[in-house]
TrEMBL record:
PANTHER family: PROLINE SYNTHETASE CO-TRANSCRIBED BACTERIAL HOMOLOG PROTEIN, PYRIDOXAL PHOSPHATE HOMEOSTASIS PROTEIN. This is Pyridoxal phosphate homeostasis protein. Keywords: Pyridoxal phosphate. One of its GO terms (molecular function) is pyridoxal phosphate binding. Residues 65-284 form the Alanine racemase N-terminal domain. The modification N6-(pyridoxal phosphate)lysine is found at residue 79.
């Protein structure tokens, strides 16, 4: 911020000093300003990614033994962030990226720079998915998973439409989203519906590969207050699923944890954390999807 303010001050000073010849000074300084912003972005993304990975590693060391069978996956949430920031993170070794909005995912996944520079990128759709936008999501290149399946109707549409985009040999990976907090503004099925939903996807959706379950922790919860009750509830849901289907715990992934709580989530056994702000910095609020 200091650099930006200082550069802006120079900009105004040059305008006053140049007088009628201010156009040249303005053009030169605007170029300098854009380069400066890019440099700051590079430093922030690299340091942010390195810091998050280090914290994940430290949190893994605190896990219970039964949680150590699966290493947690970091999904870098790049919503509202420019393509350049994604490429910077990719060049640092990051491969999994998450997007909340269908149109933004479409644009980024089909961006020529992304396609050329990030050939092994893996996209996670982590926002609410409406039925009329299913085809837009499942047709993007390098789609890895849809993390927010929250109804049998949506699961059925994904199952029926996937073959025309992904073929019959490859199944579409999905997570089932669970509203563990009961907050009305959040999507997801009730915890009591999980086993039935898992059975439906497993038995009636042959084109889907159920990888696990996901939740979004209650907004504003302070990890210092103890284990997040939403994470505890998701762990309970996984236990119920594994008992009902006679599955080992390691076969059902749990996607929980974001920038404010990913460390605790990893300690508690999360296999998939979705982190944006801690890597890319704060983002402006999006007014529409």
């Amino acid at each position: 911020m200091l650099l930006v303010n200082r550069d802006l001050s120079i900009y105004y000073n040059l305008q006053l000093y140049q007088g009628e010849g201010g156009e040249l000074g303005t053009i030169q300084l605007l170029f300098s300003f854009s380069v400066m912003l890019k440099t700051m972005s590079e430093v922030n993304v690299k340091l942010g990614l390195k810091s998050v990975l280090s914290k994940i590693q430290q949190a893994c060391a605190k896990r219970e033994k039964e949680c150590c069978e699966v290493n947690p996956r970091l999904v870098a949430v790049s919503k509202t962030k420019p393509v350049e920031s994604i490429i910077e993170a990719y060049e640092e070794g990051q491969r999994h990226f998450g997007e909340n909005y269908v149109q933004e995912l479409e644009e980024k996944a089909n961006n020529s720079l992304i396609l050329e520079s990030c050939k092994d990128i893996k996209w996670h759709f982590i926002g609410h998915l409406q039925g009329n936008k299913v085809n837009k999501v499942i047709s993007i290149p390098n789609l890895y998973i849809v993390e927010t399946v929250d109804s049998k109707k949506l699961a059925n549409k994904l199952n029926n439409n996937w073959p025309q985009f992904g073929g019959v040999a490859k199944k579409l990976r999905v997570f089932i989203q669970i509203n563990t907090s009961g907050e009305k503004e959040k999507n997801g099925i009730l915890p009591s519906e999980v086993v039935d939903m898992v059975k439906y996807v497993t038995n009636d959706c042959p084109n889907l590969q159920l990888d696990g379950i996901m939740t979004i922790g209650q907004y504003g919860y302070n990890p210092a207050d103890g284990p997040n009750p939403d994470f505890l509830k998701l762990l309970e849901c996984r236990k119920n699923v594994c008992e009902a289907l006679s599955l080992p715990l390691k076969d059902v992934e749990i996607s929980m944890g974001m920038s404010d709580d990913f460390e605790q989530a990893v300690e508690m056994g999360s296999t998939n954390v979705r982190v944006g702000t801690a890597i890319f910095g704060y983002r402006p609020k999006k007014t529409s999807s």
